[in-house]
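pinging the channel bc i need a second pair of eyes. not urgent but kinda urgent?? the chain im working w is below, pasted from the shared doc
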Amino acid sequence: MKTKGSWGKVNPFYQSKEWRALREEKLEQNPICELCETIGLVTPANVVDHIIPIEVNEELKLEPLNLQSLCEHQGSNNCHRQKTVTTRPFRSFVRFVKEMEDGKLRFICSPEARKKLLRFLKE
């Protein structure tokens, strides 16, 4: 399975044992799309997404608080693609976090996940 990064290049990180194990564990813990759940939908998750993309902060690539289970299906339910399009313009870590705190990126993860991640980043 080849997983492409946000610029279409295959990132070798997604082939690593550490990532595959963490991805599998996350999907077992959260098999339902976390963004769909916030609006009352029950959609199977098939992608583990970095809330703050690894292109923005590589240090968070294996941090469980930075991960969420999302759906990526053909048709109307494609939270992963929508989240990626929303966050693509934000390439500075400081700006990304500020936009999360200010509420401009409030739809990229659940309110609970955002609160936990922001609290973790401040520690």
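so The first strand starts at residue 47 and ends at 50. and Confidence is low (pLDDT under 50) at residues 1-8. — does that match what u expected or am i reading it wrong
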